[in-house]
Write a structure and sequence with these properties.
- The chain starts with 9 loop residues before the first strand and ends with a helix.
- 41% of the residues lie in helices and 17% in strands.
- The protein has a single domain, classed as Aldolase class I (TIM Barrel, Alpha-Beta Barrel), CATH 3.20.20.
- The protein is globular, with a radius of gyration of 16 Å.
- The longest helix has 18 residues.
- The protein has nine helices and eight strands.
- It has an eight-stranded parallel barrel, surrounded by six helices.
- It is an alpha/beta fold and 220 residues long.
- Helix 1 runs parallel beside helix 2 and helix 5 runs parallel beside helix 6.
Length: 220
Protein backbone atom coordinates (compact mmCIF):
# COMPACT_ATOMS: atom_id res chain seq x y z
CA UNK A 1 0.00 0.00 0.00
CA UNK A 2 1.47 3.34 -1.06
CA UNK A 3 1.43 6.42 1.12
CA UNK A 4 -1.27 7.98 -1.05
CA UNK A 5 -3.47 4.91 -0.57
CA UNK A 6 -3.17 5.00 3.22
CA UNK A 7 -6.06 7.39 3.75
CA UNK A 8 -6.88 8.39 7.31
CA UNK A 9 -10.66 8.58 7.57
CA UNK A 10 -13.54 7.06 9.50
CA UNK A 11 -12.91 5.20 12.75
CA UNK A 12 -9.42 5.40 14.23
CA UNK A 13 -9.25 2.83 17.03
CA UNK A 14 -6.46 3.29 19.58
CA UNK A 15 -5.23 0.22 21.44
CA UNK A 16 -4.08 1.85 24.66
CA UNK A 17 -2.35 -0.34 27.22
CA UNK A 18 -3.84 1.79 29.97
CA UNK A 19 -7.06 -0.08 29.15
CA UNK A 20 -5.94 -3.40 27.71
CA UNK A 21 -2.83 -5.39 28.65
CA UNK A 22 -0.27 -6.12 25.95
CA UNK A 23 -0.93 -9.82 26.52
CA UNK A 24 -4.58 -9.29 25.55
CA UNK A 25 -4.06 -6.73 22.82
CA UNK A 26 -3.98 -9.19 19.92
CA UNK A 27 -7.32 -10.76 20.82
CA UNK A 28 -8.87 -7.35 21.42
CA UNK A 29 -7.60 -5.95 18.13
CA UNK A 30 -8.88 -9.01 16.28
CA UNK A 31 -12.41 -8.35 17.50
CA UNK A 32 -12.15 -4.70 16.50
CA UNK A 33 -10.81 -5.41 13.02
CA UNK A 34 -13.25 -8.25 12.40
CA UNK A 35 -16.04 -5.80 13.20
CA UNK A 36 -14.78 -3.51 10.44
CA UNK A 37 -12.35 -0.99 11.90
CA UNK A 38 -9.62 -0.30 9.36
CA UNK A 39 -7.25 1.97 11.29
CA UNK A 40 -5.52 0.72 14.44
CA UNK A 41 -2.97 2.57 16.54
CA UNK A 42 -0.88 0.95 19.27
CA UNK A 43 -0.25 3.23 22.22
CA UNK A 44 1.80 1.63 25.00
CA UNK A 45 3.14 4.35 27.28
CA UNK A 46 5.68 2.96 29.72
CA UNK A 47 5.79 -0.54 28.24
CA UNK A 48 9.13 -2.33 28.10
CA UNK A 49 10.60 -2.02 24.62
CA UNK A 50 10.75 -5.77 24.05
CA UNK A 51 7.13 -6.24 25.07
CA UNK A 52 6.06 -3.31 22.92
CA UNK A 53 7.91 -4.72 19.92
CA UNK A 54 6.26 -8.12 20.30
CA UNK A 55 2.82 -6.54 20.67
CA UNK A 56 3.43 -4.42 17.59
CA UNK A 57 4.48 -7.47 15.58
CA UNK A 58 1.26 -9.24 16.48
CA UNK A 59 -0.88 -6.26 15.55
CA UNK A 60 1.03 -5.83 12.29
CA UNK A 61 0.29 -9.41 11.30
CA UNK A 62 -3.39 -8.89 12.10
CA UNK A 63 -3.59 -5.59 10.25
CA UNK A 64 -2.22 -7.23 7.12
CA UNK A 65 -4.74 -10.04 7.41
CA UNK A 66 -7.66 -7.62 7.68
CA UNK A 67 -6.31 -4.94 5.35
CA UNK A 68 -6.18 -2.34 8.11
CA UNK A 69 -3.77 0.58 8.48
CA UNK A 70 -1.45 0.08 11.46
CA UNK A 71 0.07 3.06 13.25
CA UNK A 72 2.54 3.00 16.15
CA UNK A 73 2.34 5.81 18.68
CA UNK A 74 5.59 7.63 19.54
CA UNK A 75 8.07 4.89 18.66
CA UNK A 76 9.57 5.35 15.20
CA UNK A 77 12.03 2.52 15.88
CA UNK A 78 9.25 0.04 16.58
CA UNK A 79 7.29 1.22 13.54
CA UNK A 80 10.33 0.55 11.37
CA UNK A 81 11.08 -2.84 12.91
CA UNK A 82 7.57 -4.18 12.27
CA UNK A 83 7.08 -2.37 8.95
CA UNK A 84 4.06 -0.46 10.28
CA UNK A 85 2.14 1.81 7.93
CA UNK A 86 3.20 4.81 9.95
CA UNK A 87 3.79 6.54 13.24
CA UNK A 88 1.91 9.13 15.26
CA UNK A 89 3.97 11.71 17.13
CA UNK A 90 3.28 14.28 19.81
CA UNK A 91 4.64 17.78 20.00
CA UNK A 92 7.41 16.67 22.37
CA UNK A 93 8.36 13.43 20.61
CA UNK A 94 11.13 12.96 18.05
CA UNK A 95 10.84 15.84 15.52
CA UNK A 96 8.66 14.89 12.57
CA UNK A 97 11.41 16.05 10.20
CA UNK A 98 13.72 13.39 11.64
CA UNK A 99 10.96 10.79 11.57
CA UNK A 100 10.44 11.44 7.86
CA UNK A 101 14.12 10.83 7.18
CA UNK A 102 13.86 7.48 8.92
CA UNK A 103 10.52 6.35 7.50
CA UNK A 104 11.21 7.40 3.93
CA UNK A 105 8.55 8.56 1.53
CA UNK A 106 5.98 5.79 2.03
CA UNK A 107 5.46 5.89 5.81
CA UNK A 108 2.55 7.85 7.23
CA UNK A 109 3.29 10.46 9.86
CA UNK A 110 0.60 11.95 12.06
CA UNK A 111 1.16 14.86 14.43
CA UNK A 112 -0.83 15.80 17.53
CA UNK A 113 -2.12 19.37 17.59
CA UNK A 114 -4.07 21.25 20.22
CA UNK A 115 -4.35 24.89 19.18
CA UNK A 116 -4.31 27.18 16.12
CA UNK A 117 -0.54 27.75 16.24
CA UNK A 118 0.18 24.03 16.17
CA UNK A 119 -2.32 23.51 13.34
CA UNK A 120 -0.64 26.29 11.35
CA UNK A 121 2.80 24.76 11.88
CA UNK A 122 1.44 21.38 10.82
CA UNK A 123 0.24 22.97 7.60
CA UNK A 124 3.74 24.16 6.81
CA UNK A 125 5.10 20.69 7.52
CA UNK A 126 2.48 19.15 5.25
CA UNK A 127 3.46 21.49 2.42
CA UNK A 128 6.97 20.08 2.67
CA UNK A 129 5.67 16.52 2.52
CA UNK A 130 6.71 15.77 6.09
CA UNK A 131 3.37 14.92 7.71
CA UNK A 132 0.21 13.33 6.33
CA UNK A 133 -2.47 14.03 8.92
CA UNK A 134 -3.00 15.64 12.30
CA UNK A 135 -4.96 14.76 15.37
CA UNK A 136 -6.74 17.64 17.08
CA UNK A 137 -8.01 17.76 20.62
CA UNK A 138 -9.08 17.11 23.14
CA UNK A 139 -12.37 18.11 21.58
CA UNK A 140 -14.27 17.20 24.74
CA UNK A 141 -13.20 16.50 28.30
CA UNK A 142 -11.30 13.22 28.50
CA UNK A 143 -10.12 11.04 31.37
CA UNK A 144 -7.78 9.00 29.19
CA UNK A 145 -4.88 11.44 29.53
CA UNK A 146 -4.25 12.82 33.00
CA UNK A 147 -2.27 15.73 31.56
CA UNK A 148 -4.78 16.53 28.82
CA UNK A 149 -5.17 20.15 27.80
CA UNK A 150 -8.49 21.98 28.19
CA UNK A 151 -11.18 20.84 25.78
CA UNK A 152 -11.19 22.79 22.52
CA UNK A 153 -14.87 22.12 21.89
CA UNK A 154 -16.67 21.83 18.60
CA UNK A 155 -15.85 25.43 17.70
CA UNK A 156 -12.15 24.73 18.18
CA UNK A 157 -12.45 21.78 15.82
CA UNK A 158 -14.30 23.92 13.26
CA UNK A 159 -11.46 26.46 13.34
CA UNK A 160 -8.86 23.71 13.03
CA UNK A 161 -10.65 22.34 9.96
CA UNK A 162 -10.79 25.82 8.45
CA UNK A 163 -7.02 26.18 8.75
CA UNK A 164 -5.79 22.61 8.27
CA UNK A 165 -4.51 21.40 4.91
CA UNK A 166 -4.40 17.70 5.82
CA UNK A 167 -6.93 15.18 7.18
CA UNK A 168 -7.92 15.74 10.83
CA UNK A 169 -8.46 12.97 13.35
CA UNK A 170 -10.53 14.35 16.20
CA UNK A 171 -9.66 12.96 19.63
CA UNK A 172 -10.74 13.40 23.23
CA UNK A 173 -14.04 12.44 24.82
CA UNK A 174 -15.60 11.24 21.57
CA UNK A 175 -18.57 8.90 21.91
CA UNK A 176 -21.27 7.42 19.70
CA UNK A 177 -23.53 10.28 20.81
CA UNK A 178 -21.26 13.12 19.73
CA UNK A 179 -19.67 11.55 16.62
CA UNK A 180 -22.19 13.22 14.28
CA UNK A 181 -21.35 16.71 15.57
CA UNK A 182 -17.62 15.98 15.34
CA UNK A 183 -17.92 14.87 11.72
CA UNK A 184 -20.16 17.84 10.95
CA UNK A 185 -17.42 20.10 12.32
CA UNK A 186 -15.03 18.75 9.69
CA UNK A 187 -13.17 15.80 11.21
CA UNK A 188 -12.06 13.21 8.67
CA UNK A 189 -11.61 10.53 11.33
CA UNK A 190 -12.61 10.02 14.95
CA UNK A 191 -10.12 8.52 17.40
CA UNK A 192 -11.55 6.50 20.25
CA UNK A 193 -10.08 4.68 23.19
CA UNK A 194 -12.37 4.16 26.18
CA UNK A 195 -15.57 4.25 24.09
CA UNK A 196 -14.34 1.12 22.34
CA UNK A 197 -12.11 -0.63 24.87
CA UNK A 198 -14.55 -0.29 27.78
CA UNK A 199 -17.60 -1.29 25.77
CA UNK A 200 -19.48 -4.32 27.12
CA UNK A 201 -19.69 -5.63 23.55
CA UNK A 202 -16.83 -4.22 21.48
CA UNK A 203 -18.00 -5.85 18.28
CA UNK A 204 -21.44 -4.25 18.54
CA UNK A 205 -19.92 -0.92 19.52
CA UNK A 206 -17.64 -0.87 16.46
CA UNK A 207 -20.54 -1.73 14.18
CA UNK A 208 -22.63 1.02 15.76
CA UNK A 209 -19.88 3.58 15.28
CA UNK A 210 -19.23 2.55 11.70
CA UNK A 211 -22.94 2.79 10.90
CA UNK A 212 -23.05 6.32 12.33
CA UNK A 213 -19.94 7.36 10.38
CA UNK A 214 -21.10 5.81 7.13
CA UNK A 215 -24.58 7.33 7.50
CA UNK A 216 -23.04 10.76 8.02
CA UNK A 217 -20.78 10.33 4.99
CA UNK A 218 -23.80 9.37 2.89
CA UNK A 219 -25.59 12.47 4.10
CA UNK A 220 -28.02 10.45 6.21
Amino acid sequence: MTRAEKRISGLYAIMDTSYVDLEEIEATARVIMEAGADIIQLRAKGAASGDLLEGARRLRRLSRRYGAIFIVNDRVDVALLVDADGVHLGQEDIPVEEARKLLGRDGLIGLSTHDPDEVARAGRLAEKGIIDYISFGPVFHTRTKKDARPAAGIQGLVEARRNATVPITAIGGITAENVPSVLEAGADAVAMISEVLLAKDMRSKIKELLYIIESRNRGG
